[in-house]
Amino acid sequence: MRTYTQLTRDERYQIYEMRIEKKGVAAIARALKRDRSTISRELQRNKGLRGYRPKQAHALAESRRSAKTTHRISEELWKEIDRLLREEWSPEQIAGRLKSEHGILISHEWIYQHVYADKGEGGRLYKHLRCCQKRRKRYGSYDR
């Protein structure tokens, strides 16, 4: 399975140079080891009034990327979740309360991920979870 990587600034400058040399989309794609549709979309999305320019194209792409990083859960709400965790509420109870009182849908698993990320950063929220023991296998032998 291949993973997608966005075009870099250097690749945009290479696209610009190859367009000046009158190379086609397929030739540019082969040279950059990218799909033709990636190059075609890049040329359509990021051109301005004076055609495709790499600096402008990179700025447009970056602005689109940053516009998508809006956080659904605000920092104040995470602080409220932290407060409830410190009061020994379970993540399931917190998720239910946020849904009923604020209409905010948040998974209890997301809260657990937040707690364990906090633990990774040296925080102590995990101490307030109800089940603090290591998870043990209950059935069968341990060699499976």
Strand order of the largest sheet: 1-2
Q: Tell me how many strands there are.
A: 2
| Coarse morphology | elongated
Secondary-structure-derived class: mainly alpha
Spatial gap, N to C terminus: 29 Å
For the report, how would you describe the main beta sheet?
A: 2 strands, antiparallel
Q: Number of helical runs?
A: 7
Strand content: under 5%
Poorly predicted parts: none
N-to-C order of helices and strands: HHHEEHHHH
Computed over alpha carbons, the radius of gyration is 24 Å
What's the gist of this structure?
56% of the residues lie in helices and 3% in strands. The chain has 7 helices and 2 strands; from the N terminus they run αααββαααα.
Explain what you see.
- The protein is mostly helical and 144 residues long.
- It is 56% helix and 3% strand.
- It is built from seven helices and two strands; from the N terminus they run αααββαααα.
- The chain has a two-stranded antiparallel sheet with strand order 1-2.
- A hairpin with a 2-residue loop joins β1 and β2.
